[in-house]
């Protein structure tokens, strides 16, 4: 039997609940999943409560399977509710526990609002990724943005551009490459991953004329890992890495900072990009957007990214069983 994906409710005042309902209507039985949250936050929508994930298979294709988790208060679209913060956190913990106990195949997380979680429950983590790593007991994970058109991994993430050269160490770059290579093998079924590694500076430093990081840090590390058998290209000039012919030559691009990675994938596939966490002992995906308070409850939110995230979670979980 195919285990279902556990979809967390995320911030119930955001677009998460309406997107879960929309995703079920599109996916039907093709991707089995259930939503963990408070049924009261779904209004009069078409859903069916379940007692265990195993009951997903008994729910009609046009009804959202809901594993109830009662919250402290109501959820009004677009209106942050710190009193529900503890419930949002508990739902994430519950989803992880269900995967770890073998009742669900993967975790897919709807967007959270970090300030609301901090204000309402003293949430001490920068975001989902760090909290999931804590729950899994791992020290280092890697963020990948993935779509059928491109997979990208930023080595440094949510820091100022001015801080990137200091944060970019050979230890961090090596760990990112190793975790990405292992993730492509385990979660995407890529037998011999090909990784394109960007330089930090324009034109990959142009022989030192525009920066020395490629010469002093990136190239020596890539040469050492190539000697171990890694298939690594670069350091490459980032402005020539993302045209169609270049993308055919690698399975994922390792980028040195946030925008170097996310601008190309959001340009190529804004609605279909999926946030994947590599390095966890379980599969985790998430739509690549936020809570969207400004359009919550207005029927304007597109479910494309959540649908892609659920499909990818289902496929990654299946890859781990092969």
TrEMBL record:
Function: Catalyzes the NAD(P)-dependent oxidation of 4-(phosphooxy)-L-threonine (HTP) into 2-amino-3-oxo-4-(phosphooxy)butyric acid which spontaneously decarboxylates to form 3-amino-2-oxopropyl phosphate (AHAP).
InterPro entries associated with the record: PdxA, PdxA_fam
Pathways per UniProt: Cofactor biosynthesis; pyridoxine 5'-phosphate biosynthesis; pyridoxine 5'-phosphate from D-erythrose 4-phosphate: step 4/5
Cellular localisation: Cytoplasm
Keyword Cytoplasm included in the entry's annotation: yes
Natural source organism: Cypionkella aquatica
PANTHER family associated with the record: 4-HYDROXYTHREONINE-4-PHOSPHATE DEHYDROGENASE, D-THREONATE 4-PHOSPHATE DEHYDROGENASE
Enzyme class: oxidoreductase
Gene field: pdxA
Binding, a divalent metal cation: 158, 203, 258
BP GO terms, sorted: pyridoxal phosphate biosynthetic process; pyridoxine biosynthetic process
Note: The active site is located at the dimer interface.
Protein name: 4-hydroxythreonine-4-phosphate dehydrogenase
Cofactor: Zn(2+); Mg(2+); Co(2+)
Lineage, highest ranks first: Bacteria, Pseudomonadati, Pseudomonadota, Alphaproteobacteria, Rhodobacterales
Subunit structure and binding partners: Homodimer.
Reaction catalysed by this enzyme: 4-(phosphooxy)-L-threonine + NAD(+) = 3-amino-2-oxopropyl phosphate + CO2 + NADH
Family statement drawn from the similarity comment of this UniProt entry: Belongs to the PdxA family.
């Amino acid at each position: 039997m195919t285990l279902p994906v556990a979809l967390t409710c995320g911030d119930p005042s955001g677009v998460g609940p309406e997107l879960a309902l929309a995703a079920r209507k599109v996916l039907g039985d093709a991707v089995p999943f259930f939503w963990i949250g408070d049924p009261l936050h779904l209004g009069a929508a078409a859903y069916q409560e379940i007692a265990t994930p195993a009951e997903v298979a008994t729910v009609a294709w046009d009804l959202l399977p809901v594993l109830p988790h009662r919250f402290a208060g109501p959820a009004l679209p677009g209106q942050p509710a710190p009193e529900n913060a503890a419930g949002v956190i508990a739902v994430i913990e519950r989803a992880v526990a269900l995967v770890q106990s073998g009742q669900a195949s993967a975790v897919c997380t709807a967007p959270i609002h970090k300030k609301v979680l901090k204000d309402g429950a003293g949430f001490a983590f920068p975001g989902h990724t760090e909290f999931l790593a804590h729950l899994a007991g791992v020290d280092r994970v890697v963020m990948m943005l993935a779509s059928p058109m491109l997979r990208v991994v930023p080595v440094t993430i949510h820091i100022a551009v001015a801080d990137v050269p200091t944060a970019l160490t050979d230890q961090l770059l090596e760990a990112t490459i190793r975790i990405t290579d292992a993730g492509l093998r385990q979660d995407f079924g890529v037998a011999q991953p090909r990784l394109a590694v960007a330089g930090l500076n324009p034109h990959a430093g142009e022989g030192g004329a525009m920066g020395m990081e490629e010469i002093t840090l990136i190239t020596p590390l890539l040469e050492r890992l190539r000697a171990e058998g890694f298939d690594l290209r670069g350091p490459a000039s980032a402005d020539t890495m993302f045209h169609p012919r270049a993308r055919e030559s690698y399975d994922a691009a390792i980028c040195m900072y946030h925008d170097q990675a996310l601008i190309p994938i959001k340009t190529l596939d804004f609605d279909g990009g999926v946030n994947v966490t590599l390095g966890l002992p379980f599969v985790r995906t998430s739509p690549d957007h936020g809570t969207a308070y400004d359009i919550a409850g207005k029927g304007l939110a597109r479910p494309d990214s959540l649908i892609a995230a659920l499909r990818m979670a289902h496929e990654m979980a299946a890859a781990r069983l092969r």
